[in-house]
Specification:
By secondary structure, the chain is of the alpha+beta class. The chain is built from seven helices and five strands. The protein folds into two domains: about 140 residues, TATA-Binding Protein, CATH 3.30.310; about 45 residues.
Length: about 240
Amino acid sequence: MSADERRFSREEFALVLRRAAELQQAEEREDIAAEVAPEGMTLAEMQAVARDVGVDPARVADAALLLPTRHEGALTRYIGGPSRYRLERSVPGALPARATGKVLEAIRRAADDTGAAHEIHGAIEWRHSNDSARLNVHITPHEDRTNIVVAADRSAEVFLVFFLTFLPFLLSTPILIAALGLGSAGGFGLFAGLVVVWQLCASALVRRSGVLGRARAELVLARAAEVISRERVTPELEPGAPEP
């Protein structure tokens, strides 16, 4: 019996519809992807395309965070991860001035630090800085959306980890070589092996610290976006009017 003559059950009809919709969406995604420039797209550009095809830009930002971070090269692999990274999200609706305090409170709780806040031409700047790392949050309200950027710089932290772990290694290695009574060749071999061990340990420390730091930055971004989504003012609504 051909497909034209076969009679399908209600369950089969539902499965066919679902699969047809998936195939159509896959084809549409391939058509869109084919138009991407060779140099790639920014998050804002992806969100603009997604909005045109009916996908929530906020969900695009969420999905972008799930992508693995690209390595910056051999140095990045050597030290255990990137020393700088940037997270972005665009929330539909403008942030009203009355909600600034709530957003800052959410950021401070997520970062577990009071930091320092400033307002520059309507944009909100929040900064956390210590001797080893910096975390900056930049919130820019527009008429129909609010952009959030969280940027982190761990360069000083990476330097301190490698420097502070290298000093004990440098001081203890000659003592160990002398205690073992190794000659020049044996001492050099032991030194080379210990260098590899030191680098692996230092990189592991940097990697673990980076995972924790990125998780905190993502939490700051998510908490700020939650408050803005809750307190936002859309172009269709007057400030203070309840959403339908």
